[in-house]
Structures are given as C-alpha cells and as structure tokens.
Amino acid sequence: METDIPLRDIMVREVVAGNEDMNVREAAKMMRKYDVDSIVVLNNSGKPVGIVTQGDIINELVIKDTTPSTVKLKDVMTTPLITGSPDDSLADTAKKMAAAKIRKLPIIEDGKLVGIVADVDILAVSSQMNSILTDLIEMNVERELTEQGSEGEGMGQGICEKCGCFTNDLVMKDGLMVCESCKEEMELEEE
Prior knowledge:
The protein starts with 16 loop residues before the first strand and ends with a helix. The protein folds into two domains: about 5-120, CBS-domain; about 150-190, no CATH class. About 40% of the residues lie in helices and about 25% in strands. The protein has six helices and eight strands. The protein is α+β, with helices and mostly antiparallel strands. The relative contact order is 0.13.
C-alpha cells in the first residue's frame, strides 16, 4: 500500500452531519436519503463532537425497544470523536482506525469537518495499488526473461508457451518460452 498518500486525496468531502439535538428518527431518515451508514454529530457551534452509526441505532434503540423520535443524537453518539487531518498519511490512518476498531474517521481541518474516510476507501486504494504492483511485477518478469537469455539459451523450468506442457528446460525461441521438443519443431518449420 502506498503510505504517503494524504487523506485529502481519498476522503469523501460531502459528509452527512446533524446537530446533537436532532432526534434519531430524523438522523435515520437523512442516512437513508443519502445512502450512508453513519452521521457525524455537530454541536451548536458546528464543531464535530461525535458519530452515530447504524450499529449505534440498532444497539441503543432497536434492542432496547426505544422510540427513535424520543432520543437525541447526543444520547447515542460515540464520543470522544476520533478524527484525522487531511494531511495524515493513509498508512498511519489505517493503523489508527484498526487500533481504535472504527470504520469511519471524520477529517477535521481548522476545527471544521471537511471530509470522512471509511475503511472501504482505504481498501479501494490498497486494491488499486496492488493491481498496479501486479502489472509492474509482470512487466519486470517479462523484461527479465527477455534479458536473461538470448535465442535458444536455457531459461529454467516452467510451462511451454507452445504445447502447454511443464518442463524443467525452457528455452527462448522466436520470443516464446518453449520446451526442447517445440523448439526443434519450430526449427524444422523454418527450414
């Protein structure tokens, strides 16, 4: 995983937020409207002070059979709020979230909520990086195979690119890694 990527490059900038005096029913409607599974809770001065997730709603209201319209966000929010900065690195953030066992990290700059990073955002970047690394490795392997041996020189074991059989003695012939039998057939075809 690329460790120097700042959170500002991956954070979601449109964060669903609600006032701490909002009731859970209103918050749940907002979460459904914007198709999110959490809402950042702001105090009356607009400062982020907590977060409420679908899990919080289930654990605090549904299991206890409490009416959502009678409970305020400040009564069910997770606090203190663990946050990050837009300049924090992806690797440090992943470690921080794992250590705190959280899936969402609100991003604060100059005391204001400017974004949010979820575990899935980190995984998406990680899988993209893995895909790029795989492509680079494959390119390097191809280059090394080409540089390792010239035409007809032994290259080691592997699968023949002509007949598909495994062999302990691959050789390069016409840009293909082939077994000794296929090499001989290719030479006969050239004659």
